[in-house]
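Pipeline run #58 for the internal structure catalog. This entry was flagged by the ingest filter as a single-chain record with no existing model, so it goes straight to prediction. Upstream metadata was stripped on purpose; only the residue string is passed forward. Reviewer on rotation: M.T. Logging verbosity set to normal.
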Amino acid sequence: MEFTFLGTSAGTPTRSRNVSALALSHSGHRPWYLVDCGEGTQHQLLRAHYSVMQLRAIFITHVHGDHTFGLPGLLTSASMLGRTEPLDVIAPVQTQNLIHATLENSDSSLNYTLNFIDSEAPDFVWRDEHVGVTNVALSHRVPCRAYVFTEQNVERQLLQDKLNEEGIAPGPGWGELQKGNDVMLEDGCLLRSDDYTRIPRVARRLVVAGDNDDPTLLSEACNGSHVLIHEATYTQEVADRVGPWPQHSSAGQVARFAQQARLPNLVLTHFSSRYQSGPDGTPHINQLAAEALQHYRGRLFLARDFASYRLQKDLSLNCLTTEPGN
């Protein structure tokens, strides 16, 4: 499973960071999924090598503009580029209203169907052949969600010795069993895939959280998860000075939770625009990492625009990009 940050700034962009958007894929860049779509996301995509033609679904965490204002432009550009495949948009109902109002009031239209799915429905579940997605309600000024992506259809290992011992000759049936399909033999005997295959590894799972001032709401979702992507808008000192109204988390707050939840990998994002990344920047973004490392002993990553990561089948998380952010 791979993911690339298209924007890591909170509220407003900076010279080096755009506002929130994350591209995620099961393998390679198609199909892929977009989590949030701040202003300018389609321009970021031009540098990230993800095609809107291969986009399978968009997941919106909440209605705030730094997570949604890029939607009308991205959707209409996809239409102009020739997209005809339907697109699922999982979002609060207000996001559907935003898109419809923008299209109606800008003489715009789409050549493909948008399938709107209410992200706040109590029984929300979404899946395709690659991932299953559930969500968790968070604590923010407006309703907000975290999305839990769980790998589907993990490859099976065929128990060839057992098949040979039972006199089941190699053939197309073996391939069907390995795909997870049961097979009926000519003599009427039913072979169940679960009896002749095994799943040799754990399904990968990662949690992508929207804005949230209470990481403990993710306790159940993070049990057995391998990566948490969570906002760290401030250091604790700044959070105390700003006060509770914005309802964001500090780096230390998220790190303490991640340590208590025994998460092996924590990726922080959604940094206040006050934090600089240049060598002489003050306050510097590295202050967020330093604060988090006081509380968290797992693998910590500070996201930057265009940084890509791969959650390997052995559950290790690797950063695929080493060059400094632009």
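catalog note: The chain has a mean pLDDT of 94.
catalog note: Residues 307 and 322 are 8 Å apart (CA to CA).
status: ready for reviewer M.T.
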